[in-house]
Amino acid sequence: MPESRSSALPPPPTVRGTLAQVLRGMLMGSADLVPGVSGGTVALVLGIYERFIASLHSGVEVLVHLAKGDLKRAGAALRRVPFVWLGALGIGILTVVFLGASTLSVAIERYPVQLAGLFCGLIAAAVVICWRQLMTPGPRHWQVLALSSVVTFLLLGLSPASETSGEVTTPLWGFFLGGAVAITAMVLPGISGSFILVLLGLYAQVLAAVADRDLVVIAVFALGCLTGIAVSSTTLRWLLHHYHDIVLAAMIGLMVGSIRILWPWPGGFQTTELGLPTASTWLVPTVLAVLGLVVVLGLDALALRLRGVDDEDLEAEVERAADATD
Fold first, then answer.
1. CB of 93 within 8 A of CB of 48?
2. CB 179 within 8 A of CB 222
3. Cα 97 to Cα 102: distance, rounded to the nearest angstrom
4. Where along the chain do its domains lie?
5. C-alpha dist (Å) from residue 211 to 31, 48, 166, 226
6. What is the pLDDT along the chain (326 residues), one digit of tens a residue?
7. DSSP one-letter code for 81
8. What is the 3-state secondary structure (H, E, C) of 207-238?
């Protein structure tokens, strides 16, 4: 299957495009802070997911050639890395993570049910938008989506590993594996890396290592993250190229299954138990869910119109160039 236009590496950067990329990164960073939501989900909704994976893979190619001692190919691969595109995305993500973590944490603690309703609406809109990206949807894709949803739903029902304190007690290899698994979850739509760390019993320990400037633990965890990015980006790029619709259907299933920890009732983010709304709790979360759904679908419709205008301009430019050549 030929690669879609969105999977190609980014075009040369412009000031407006770079600023827009920082904004995309901020949206992805905001998602990574939310329990059960992944930055990969936002990347899918924004239409940059395949491009994001391809860009990560281009950086991995540099490391692979360097490891083989092939400096010539490493240099050629280095020139293909979209540093500005990835850098702007990273700046946006890190800005929100460092500046917004405390604010969002307080909001989630104070309004767990209301915010869970809002994020349910956002995820529902993401599922609709991502389903439209399938090239030839059929019964097989519904089956893959259903299986992925059920597996994710069951996995997210697991009780998180107990963490009574932030004291670092896990061996270094545990931080390496935890980093690799968590970063893979962040890249995949549907499951947040922070939730995976909680399940592994590493969340408080990683935060403690950062707070205490434990450089050894931080370095091992970062190395695990780099390894996870290398493996996941390479694998996902290959899968998206050869099995685009199947992979996308599975990713949509991840998002559907993640509703388990976003379901507002009875306690929103505070529990994975599911319940029915009561007379006093149904209105606000439901309104926020509908609001989130409508806003995201509206923005997507606007983005489609803008992309259509861009495509028409590009086609007109090609026609003018062809006429000039004739």
1. no
2. yes
3. 9
4. 5-160+245-269+280-315
5. 23, 33, 10, 21
6. 344 444 444 456 677 778 888 888 888 887 776 655 677 777 877 778 888 888 888 888 888 888 888 888 888 888 888 888 888 998 988 888 777 666 766 777 788 888 888 888 877 887 888 788 788 888 999 999 999 999 888 877 765 554 544 566 778 888 898 888 888 777 776 566 666 776 666 766 776 777 677 888 888 988 988 888 888 888 888 887 888 889 888 888 888 887 877 788 887 766 667 888 888 888 988 999 898 888 878 877 776 665 554 444 434 444 444 454 44
7. S
8. HHHHHCCCHHHHHHHHHHHHHHHHHHHHHHHH
Backbone angles phi, psi at 240, to 5 degrees: -65, -30
DSSP 170: S
Take residue 65 and report the two structure tokens written for it: 């050639």
Confirm if 58 and 74 have CB atoms less than 8 A apart.
no
